[in-house]
Amino acid sequence: xxxxxxxxxxxxxxxxxxxxxxxxxxxxxxxxxxxxxxxxxxxxxxxxxxxxxxxxxxxxxxxxxxxxxxxxxxxxxxxxxxxxxxxxxxxxxxxxxxxxxxxxxxxxxxxxxxxxxxxxxxxxxxxxxxxxxxxxxxxxxxxxxxxxxxxxxxxxxxxxxxxxxxxxxxxxxxxxxxxxxxxxxxxxxxxxxxxxxxxxxxxxxxxxxxxxxxxxxxxxxxxxxxxxxxxxxxxxxxxxxxxxxxxxxxxxxxxxxxxxxxxxxxxxxxxxxxxxxxxxxxxxxxxxx
Length: 289
Hints:
The protein has 10 helices and 5 strands; from the N terminus they run H-H-H-E-H-H-H-E-H-E-H-E-H-E-H. 41% of the residues are buried. A 5-stranded parallel β-sheet has the order 1-2-3-5-4, with helices on both faces. Helix 7 (171-182) links the parallel strand 2 (159-164) and strand 3 (188-194). The longest helix has 26 residues, at 19-44. The chain is 39% helix and 10% strand. The protein is globular and about 50 Å long. It is of the alpha/beta class. It has helices spanning 19-44, 49-53, 56-64, 91-100, 106-110, 139-152, 171-182, 212-218, 231-241, 276-288, and strands at 82-85, 159-164, 188-194, 222-227, 248-253.
C-alpha cells in the first residue's frame, strides 16, 4: 500500500531532511505535548497524567511521524487511516495534537474541563474522531470491523488502535483477536501501551502476559515488541508492519508518568491533581528534559 503523507510543514514540524532530524523533531513535539497536558491539568484540576504521559511518543509518532494517513484539510477523507484511542482518558494529549494540527480551535481547546467543553473522554463530535470509549475492551472489535469494511470495499486504509495493557483482560478483546485472524485483517494494527500499571495494581509478566507473544502468534497475528518511548524503534517497526500479511499487535513497553520523575511508575498519578509545588517541579523537569 502506497502511503500518501502530508508534508512536514503541514504536520507542524520543521523540515527534516534526515531520520535523525525527524526523531529530534518528534522528541521536541513530545515535550510540547507533555507541557500542554500539564497546563490543561493545572487549569482544570482534572487529568489522567500517568496514563497520558505513557503514550505521548506513540501518539506523536502516529500523527507526525508519517504513520497515520490523513488530511487536516479534509478530516473525513474516505481513504484516511482510522485511529481509535481506546484508553480515552489519555485524550488530553490528543487534544493538544489536534490543536497543533488545526483540527480544533484554541477556543475549543481551552474549554477542556469546563461545563459544556471538552471532556475527560475523547469527544466523538470532533471531525476525524471515529469512536471513543469509556467501557474498555471494545476498540479492537470496532477497529476490526473498520478493517474488514475497508477490505470488502476494496479500499486500502488501515485501522489502528492504542489500548491500555489492562484491556486484554476483557473477553471481548479475545473474540476480536479470533475474528481478525479469521478474516486475515492485515490492515489492523493494535498497539498495547504496556505501562504495567492499572488504576490500583501492577500488571506483571505472569498470568495474562505470561507467554503473551506465543498466545497472539497461535491466533495468527504478527507481534512486535518495542520501547514505546524510542522513536527509532517506533518508526522502524511501523515500517515493517506495512509488509505484514496478518493482523499486527505491537507491545509498546512504556512508563506510566513518563517524563516527570515523581510521577513515573507511581499509581497515584493515574488521576491525581497537582499541587502548586508539584506543578512547578513537573514543568521544570519537562522543559529541561
